[in-house]
Amino acid sequence: MRRKVAPDSTAMVAGGGGGGATEAEQAQLFSAIRNGEDLGPFVRRAFASGRPESLLSSLRQFARSKEAEIEDVCKAHYQDFIRAVDDLRSLLSDVDSLKSALADSNDALQSAAGPLLAALDAYLEARSIAANLAAALRAARLCSRLFALLARANEHLAADHLYLALRAVAAAERDLLPAAPHPTIRRMLLRLIPAVRAHAERKISKEFSDWMVQIRVASRHLGQIAIGRASAARQREEELRARQRQAEEQAHFRSGSTTATPTLRDHSYSLRVEEDDDWAGDDADDLAAAAAAASSDEGDPGLDLTPLYRAYHIHKTLGLEERFRRYYFENRKLQLTSDFQVSSLTPFLESHQTFFAQIAGFFIVEDRILRTGGGLIARPDVDALWETAVTKMVSVLEDQFSRMQTANHLLLIKDYVSLLGVTLHRYRYAVDPLLDVLSKHRDKYHDLLLSDCRRQVSEALAADKFEQMLMKKEYEYSMNVLSFQIQTSDITPAFPYVAPFSSSVPDLCRISRSFVEDSISFMSHGGQLDIYPIVKKYLERLLGEVLDGSILRLIESGGLGVSQAMQVAANMAVLERACDFLFRHAAQLSGIPLRIAEKGKREFPLKKSRDATVELLLGLLRKKIDDFLLLTDSISWLADSPPPNGNDYSNEVYIYLDTLVSTAQQILPIQVLRRVLQGVLSHISDKIMGLFLSDAVKRFNSNAVMGIDVDLKTFESFAENQSHLFSDSDDSGANELKLALLEARQLVNLLMSNNPENFLNAVIRERSYNKLDYKKVVAVTEKFRESSDRLFGTFGTRGAKQNPKQKSLDALIKRLKDAS
What we know:
Helix content is 73%, strand content 1%. Among the domains are: 192-247 and 301-429, no CATH class; 444-612, CATH 1.10.357.30; 635-788 and 802-818, Tetracycline Repressor, domain 2 (Orthogonal Bundle). The longest helix has 81 residues, at 78-158. By secondary structure, it is mainly α. It has helices spanning 9-14, 23-34, 40-49, 52-76, 78-158, 162-176, 183-255, 264-273, 283-296, 306-317, 321-339, 348-372, 379-403, 407-425, 432-440, 442-463, 474-480, 504-523, 532-556, 562-589, 594-597, 607-629, 648-667, 670-693, 702-721, 732-739, 742-752, 762-768, 774-783, 804-819; strands spanning 470-471, 497-498, 700-701, 784-785. The protein is built from 30 helices and four strands. A two-stranded antiparallel sheet has the order 1-2. It has a two-stranded parallel ribbon with strand order 3-4. Helix 3 (40-49) packs across helix 4 (52-76) and helix 7 runs antiparallel to helix 10 (306-317). Keywords: Cytoplasm, Exocytosis, Transport. This is Exocyst complex component.
């Protein structure tokens, strides 16, 4: 039905029915309502002014105005609404028919689809059950795989296969832990996996600790084996070098070749090529030899790096690789530090091999680990350990060498240190500081060696009776003569053989040869190739200071007789040949060919003692001759007739000299014998001159002079009889011996001359009296009187004619006095 249209609000406002509200206020209110603004201010103002009714009136008025507008709109569209309602009514009838059709279709569908829906529900229920079963099977298979891994891990742990156990645990953690079917299993895995890893770490750490204990013993054994192999290789090399030198020298002596001489470095290279196969120069042989020795010794644990590599691999598997590397390095460093401890209770000579073998084995092991350990230790770490070890070894050697007072002890340690250097040099360790220490103490070693040799030489000389040495067997001859090349002939003598030297000569040769060999042993393998000049210098010190000095002290002691002094002089000739052998021996051991070592003339190192020995022998012989010359007191200087066979002393001296020569020619060299005989005869000449000049002889006559002439002829005959000893030139030796008597002979010739005044003739004097001194001639001729000029003889011969010889002598004396 139609609504009643309200009156127009504008008309009401215009008619003043607004309850007192002004038009302006209404306009503002209406404008605010149309714009959707907040009406709060209008409400507050109405209540503040006490006129809310006017506001309500205005609002009602506005509502009525809107209703009127709505009514106008409805009136304008009334026909359209009617048509729409009609359309809706027709639509409702269609909807009713459609609804009945849908109901019929639904009934048909329900009847047809009921069994299908039941089947669908069964299917969905079956699918849900299948899904649950599949999830259960997956969980079962997962649990089965998990438990299989855990069971395998348990088996590996029981069998001590830690790596396989850790791999099984890691696979369980990686593949199965995220998909654990139940929280309980997850919690179990989260608890057990760290426990297994902790167990593996503890177990492998214990094994590594046990290995660290065992490796010290194994390293010492390995070091001893490696150094022993180096020693054996050095021995083989020296034997090869000796054979090579011998072959070269034999070829040189056979062919007299002057081809270029190979150096020691050339020898070294050739010997390296010929080395045995068991010295390959790497650690494989050392480790193999150590393993073989360990297998034969049940108490030796042997060298086994498997526990170390296993521990490193397990820690790497646990992700603790860097920590294990640091742990290993620190523990090995502590082990090395403990190896440096030198016991003060045990002499270093007894413990030095163990000390150096321990260090050698340590670094051989480290080199092997460096090359096969897969980065367990780095080269800088090994180098740092080696520098520490070298510094400590140098300090220990310096300290121990400074305390040693025995050359042999120092040599033993030096040899072992040099073998240590050779061994570790093959593993590319720098061993120069060790060799420098050995070179630094070279002088001290040789001083100690010289001191030992000085003591041995003194003992050998003191024990020698200085009698010719008797050798009954050929081996004695070989040991005392041939081994030092002091034989004078290549023909082996018949035995028993009496040598021309005494027992001290082979002893001194042995001492000197031992010195050379010890010196070579100390100098060899020290990094220096040409050692011969140094060895030669020390050998010259031995010969010049020790042997020469000891023999000089023996001579100066004054305890030697003529036969002993003669034997010492004979020994000196043999020692001269021995010195040549020693220098050749030193050259051969130094690797220097003989043709180089023998270049240049070498002065005899024992020259001082040799000369002193000859002077001592001369002094003793002169003293012996003086004893015989005491018989000259029985000479009748104013005899009535000359002695037919000379004076008695000359015969005694002749017999003594003849006996002396028969003994001396068997042992003394010709040069020494000649020098001795010259000295003795010269002394006899001086003594005869002294007889004429003696104050005890106031006067002598021609008979006494003729007796002295016979004596001189006896001595000259002795000199001529020795000409067979001096076969180097025609009568040169005999003439030299006779020249020793020349002064006495010229004086006797002058006294026996019929015209002594010829002495004043310069030509005759130079030819026949060149050894005579003016003053001696004056002193002797003043004492000479002819046989007829007896004491008081002038009383019976007063007025007789003077003897022409005496007159010539008086003229000679007068003119010599005037000249002087």
